[in-house]
């Protein structure tokens, strides 16, 4: 979403209520811009990130405007889906954000039992650029295994010939970096269903724990606690593509 937008439409799209409810908020003086109440709900505004620091709604800073991206530390036990039983990653965000248009979606998915770095955005172009197979954006996982590594796994993963059960196209080469007999980093550039777990199954092992710590050149920040999120800055987005 770029360019100028009517204030009532913008705030309604950001989940602050229907356009009528937003108009009522404005009439009540509860929407301010640069410290002064906004007079007209139909004023046109340029939608840019700085608006969040200039506008207040009911005294609180405006949510991030459309065109936003988040990095979230996904805990285990939370599902990357808009509608499934149990806790969803979207439940970790403010409830108002569920009503946003365009909607916020996760960039690819992590399994329910996988933890770590998950990106979310309402910017469809950005989402597709990150998951596009042509971009080869690398994802790094820390896998904790049920059985010790045998020594042949790195070559199998790097071969570009490994087939996952039920598939007919081999996996692109991936990089294994063993840490201990039962823990290793695995860096992949594809995003196939349960890919890392199925890769270890293909070499006779089993993943007990899986954690993603890096997407492209963007690391999960050490101070981002499980279950919390942070707005991505332009440099964070750039890091994904380096
Ligand atoms: N591979 C998996 O098996 N699970 C994930 O969540 C991500 C990659």
Short descriptors:
242 residues, Structural Genomics Hypothetical 15.5 Kd Protein In mrcA-pckA Intergenic Region, Chain A, Alpha-Beta Plaits, nine-stranded mixed sheet, four-stranded antiparallel sheet, binds uracil
Strand and helix map with partners:
Layout: E1 4-6, H1 7-13, H2 19-27, E2 31-33, E3 36-37, E4 44-46, H3 51-54, E5 55-57, E6 60-61, E7 69-74, E8 105-106, E9 114-121, H4 124-131, E10 139-145, H5 153-158, E11 175-180, E12 183-188, H6 195-202, E13 207-215, E14 218-219, E15 229-231, H7 234-240
Parallel strand pairs: 9-13
Antiparallel strand pairs: 1-4, 2-3, 2-5, 5-6, 7-9, 7-15, 8-9, 10-12, 10-13, 11-12, 13-14
Helix pairs in contact: 1-2
The protein binds uracil.
Explained architecture:
With 242 residues, the chain is of the alpha+beta class. It folds into three domains: 4-61, Roll (Structural Genomics Hypothetical 15.5 Kd Protein In mrcA-pckA Intergenic Region, Chain A); 69-133 and 223-232, Alpha-Beta Plaits, CATH 3.30.70; 139-215, Alpha-Beta Plaits. The protein contains seven helices and 15 strands. The chain has helices spanning 7-13, 19-27, 51-54, 124-131, 153-158, 195-202, 234-240; strands at residues 4-6, 31-33, 36-37, 44-46, 55-57, 60-61, 69-74, 105-106, 114-121, 139-145, 175-180, 183-188, 207-215, 218-219, 229-231. Strands 7, 8, 9, 10, 11, 12, 13, 14 and 15 form a nine-stranded mixed beta sheet that branches. A four-stranded antiparallel beta sheet has the order 3-2-5-6. It has a two-stranded antiparallel ribbon with strand order 1-4. Helix 1 (7-13) crosses helix 2. The model has no long low-confidence stretch (mean pLDDT 96). Uracil binds next to helix 6.
